[in-house]
Amino acid sequence: MVPSQTLVCAAVLALAVLQALASDTFIAAVYEHAVILPRTIHKVSPADALALMNRNMDVLEGAVKEAAQQGARIIVTPEDGIYGWVFTRETIYPYLEDIPDPEVNWIPCTDPTRFGRTPVQERLSCMARNNSIYVVANIGDKKPCNSSDPNCPSDGRYQYNTDVVFDSEGKLVARYHKYNLFRQETQFNYPKEPEFITFETPFGKFGVFTCFDILFREPAVVLASELQVDTVLFPTAWMNVLPFLTAVEFHSAWAMGMGVNLLSANTHNTIMSMTGSGLFTPHGPALYYYNSKTEEGRLLVAELNARPRLSPNYPAAVNWSSYATSVKNYSRENETFPGAVRRDIFTFSELKHKAGNHTVCQKDLCCHLAYRMSNKSKDEVYVLGAFDGLHGSVIKYHWQICTLLKCKSTDLSTCGQPAETAETKFAMFSLSGTFGTNYVFPEVLYSGVQLAPGEFEVLSDGRLQSKNGTSKPLLTVTLFGRCYEKDLPHPLRSFLTYLRL
């Protein structure tokens, strides 16, 4: 047995080495992949499943090599990026592998048969090892169970949507089972408990979660706020939903609101409205990509601050309701009308003049806007909107939203419907709200679903305002608040808890 004093010395030495090698910045990459999908919806043989996965990994390996050649230390690839998403529980089974806990200290590239048949993990490990780069990928995990487990599925196994991370030596250093499944992911099981996966590198502390997870407290907020990760790795298969939930729009806002780097790699499929990847920081996007016109993937590479919280220009803390609770309430001076953003009923007020002050309230939320348009198109209508309530048809979670948005047409009944283009620019805007949460995400979206890096700021009193007007026509300005404590219990997860009791 090694004496405890020796272990302590070894740990201290390892920490010292890590700190000595620590970098202030690092180069990171994300790859938006146009996934090659199965040609059949029926179950295939393991050999055919592997053949499809190898075709996708051929593409991913090319991106990994190119990223490494550009100096990237880590690359994130998309959710569903190796086999797609059109599956039932039975048809996805040939694509799954048993993914061990990273504590086993395993390099699949050099020891591929240690945990049975694992060709996908072997190849991903070798991509990392051969190119001296961390590789983040999304694959499926399978875990056997039996009748002693009251939740064990009838087919005798759990199936998990899983992210894996291999370090630059090819070692498996992280495994994360997606906790918040999207409603169509019936091929996978919910983990019994949320996982809060982090790992240290010479270029910062990393956390990982997947797609729909970003909208919930666990694990997303816990990783960023409580465990204080520097960078979040985020494989996603995000379907863009205007006006507030396009991938680049919300993911950039989340990184700013949480004060972390977010490496977001989306799948690319225009039929499914999937595009939008980026390297996002507490100050906005370092680099992003959104293209709904082509079917091609895209590699993004950028240099990021390794430890943004230690930066002298790290954003100051924000009291999101400070300004809005002190300003004059103009709600009695403005006519309002209801309007739907999908199923959510907003309270809207039309901006009838080129400049002015508006207040719109719904329940506990009052939204205040000061604005001045620089050129008002006669064929366009803008409104100020407020929403304070539960969102979602099955999984219900609480939003508070203040938004300045362009209506789809001059017909007020279209306000809230998706609009991708605009002609009106603003000389200034200042948006604030009486939010009942500290978790508010600032969004500014230009015509053509483009971001506005460096053109707006968030003040410590909660105002989201333009710096020098808008350089392009404006689609939306939004403060997107999440009241996690008001979310309803997850219906499917609550049912599983009932079964365990």
UniProtKB/TrEMBL annotation:
The keyword Amino-acid biosynthesis does not apply. The keyword Signal applies. GO terms for molecular function: hydrolase activity, acting on carbon-nitrogen (but not peptide) bonds, in linear amides. It comes from the Eukaryota. InterPro entries: Biotinidase-like_euk (IPR012101), Biotinidase/VNN (IPR040154), C-N_Hydrolase (IPR003010), C-N_Hydrolase_sf (IPR036526), Vanin_C (IPR043957). Residues 1-22 form the signal peptide. Keywords: Glycoprotein, Hydrolase, Signal. Residues 31-306 form the CN hydrolase domain. Pfam families: CN_hydrolase, Vanin_C. PANTHER family: BIOTINIDASE-RELATED, CN HYDROLASE DOMAIN-CONTAINING PROTEIN-RELATED. This is CN hydrolase domain-containing protein. It comes from Gallus gallus (Chicken). The lineage of its organism: Eukaryota, Metazoa, Chordata, Craniata, Vertebrata. The gene is LOC107056139.
